[in-house]
Structure formats: structure tokens, C-alpha cells
Amino acid sequence: MKYEEVLKKYFDKVYTEVEFVKKTYQVLEPLGFNDENTIAGKCICRDEISQSIRSVIKHMWGEAFNFSSLAGMFFAGKTGLAAAMHHSPISGGKEQYVFYALPHIAINKEGRIGVCRREGREEESTACGALNAFQKEMASGKVNLTMDNEDVEQSLIRMRLLREIPYGHVPDLLELTRTALKAIQSDLETTISKVVDTNKSNYAIISGIQIHGPSGNYVWPSECYTVVNGKRETLNLK
Ligand SMILES: [Zn+2]
């Protein structure tokens, strides 16, 4: 299968990064979120091919608080989130936040999942490299479950994602990326429930998967919603 067919098969709707962030801004603006009263936060992989969306978020919302670890995992915890939660301007007595949670995956022009080319290099590369390394480890039958102090984030990825994977099952990279998305969103939500006072703050969660195609980056939107005055409303970005 070629790239377009693979994309269509696994992702029901994709936007370019600019379209996606613009769309989120357009649906959030009537709900009281704008670039003057809102701080954005992001969980995006450290990989440089992921950073283009950071620039788009900055362009729409201004500088964003960075919660990102390898694979876009949310390991910033209560301390990280509590720090961000004291930064928004106060407008109408409330603070406004928008959180982008976007792990990533590559698809090359032949439709191979996880494979990309990097400028100036002949050999194939992978994205997400951290998730791919963990997937290979699982496939080998041996997973290192210790906390390696010289490899802290990768140790945390293994420990966190294994909680979501049935014992003995080896997901492929696409399934593992969806598992990472679920974990990032869930950890963000759990931490929000402990740190955020919805009497003082309104927020939005925008989750999805960033896709590196042969000629640019795209985003597949997953669950997106707002919590305004403590009330949750789904955002339709499809
Ligand atoms: Zn990555």
C-alpha cells in the first residue's frame, strides 16, 4: 500500500499542522479561549521533526508551557502542571489553558509505518524512535523494567506503557503509538484532577497523533474537549 492508502486506512481524518491548530483555535475562541487570555501547554516528542507544530502553536497562542518528554509522554507531574497553572492571564475572573497531547508516527511514501527519511542521511530512520526501541524490546521477549538512571525517560516509558498492554501481547508501532496517546491523555487528566480548580480555571484538551508523511506533517485528531465552568463539552474536529 502507498502512503495515501495507509493514511486513509488507519486515520479517518487528517489536517496539516497549520489547519489543525487553526481549527482548534477557531472552535475554542467562541468558548472564551484566545491568544490574549490563554496559555497553551504541550506534550510533543523531543524529536526535531515534531517541532514544526510547536511553531504553529506559538504562532496561534503565543509561547506554550512545555510538558514534553520522549514520545510526548507527560512526566512533568503535579509540580510541572502546578507551575503552568499559575501562569495564565486572568480574564473574567478565570484562567484559560489549552493542552495539546500529540505523540507521533512516521509513514514513508511506500506506506511503511514508522519509517521516515531525514535530511542529509541516506539510511532510513524511525519515528517515534523511543516507542520503536521499546516495541523492538518487547518483540525480542526481554524488557528491562529497572529504572536506569542514565536513561530515565525511556525507563519511565516502559514502566508506564506496560500498564496499558495485556501481559504477553506485543503491539506493533501504530498500536503502541495509540497506547502512548491514551497514557498521555490519561496522565494529564489525572494530574489536572489533582491540581486544577475548575472554579478558577477553564481548560481544553486537544489530543491526537502527529503524522510525518513523505511531504510534510499532519495531525489526526482524537478526543478533544473543553471544561468551562466545570462542565465538560466535546469538541468536534472531524
Ligand atoms: Zn519520538
Task: Spell out the blueprint of helices and strands.
Elements: H1 3-10, E1 15-16, H2 17-28, E2 38-44, H3 52-61, E3 65-66, H4 77-84, E4 90-91, E5 94-102, E6 104-106, E7 115-116, E8 125-126, H5 129-140, H6 152-162, H7 173-195, E9 201-213, E10 216-228, E11 231-234
Parallel strand pairs: 2-3, 2-5, 5-9, 6-9
Antiparallel strand pairs: 1-10, 4-5, 7-8, 9-10, 10-11
Zinc ion binds at residues 45, 47, 71, 104, 127-130.
What does the model show?
The chain has helices at residues 3-10, 17-28, 52-61, 77-84, 129-140, 152-162, 173-195, and strands at residues 15-16, 38-44, 65-66, 90-91, 94-102, 104-106, 115-116, 125-126, 201-213, 216-228, 231-234. With 238 residues, the protein is α/β, with parallel strands linked by helices. It has a domain at 1-71 and 222-238. The strands form two sheets. Strands 1, 2, 3, 4, 5, 6, 9, 10 and 11 form a nine-stranded mixed β-sheet that branches. Strand 4 and strand 5 form a beta hairpin. The longest helix has 23 residues, at 173-195. The model has no long low-confidence stretch (mean pLDDT 95). The structure holds zinc ion.
